[in-house]
Model the fold of this input.
Amino acid sequence: MVMKIIRWCVLTFTLIFAIVVLGISGHLLAIRHTHYWHFAALAVAVSSLTILTFPVILLVNTFVGSGDRISTERIFGEALWLSIMWILWLATGANATHAARVHFFSGGCSFFSGFSSKICNEFRVVEAFAYINFIILLCYTIWLFAYEFTRDQPQSQPGGAQTSQKAPNTTGQ
Done:
């Protein structure tokens, strides 16, 4: 039960932050029609992937889940996808940081650049939310692996019965 609540909170917050990144990155792409910022295109792609896949993960875990036990395969599949997503969010944040340092004087929003401070602040928002999503997903993925490797698994035989070790028969030889 605790795992479902944590999963729901993590994926929902990441989904909300991805919607913010999608809107701001879309605006950054819209204001430059020819020479667009590449980090903004990456941010649109990564946030779109997040918006398309995280609700599916939430719905599958909500409606298909069998009780409180979640299968190992589903946990590893989710951890694999989340690992890919935090790598993409890290790349988005790093590209946004690089673009801000290239286009703005020492990365700060000042009047020395050819762009307005509003655009500079939008760079910063994309950076911040990309890094926040990266940190949230990285921590959740680590927690997911730790949860999977430390939870108790019932040991069962192929027939489904529990195994029990019998003492050797030493009487009547």
Notes: The two ends are 53 Å apart (CA to CA).
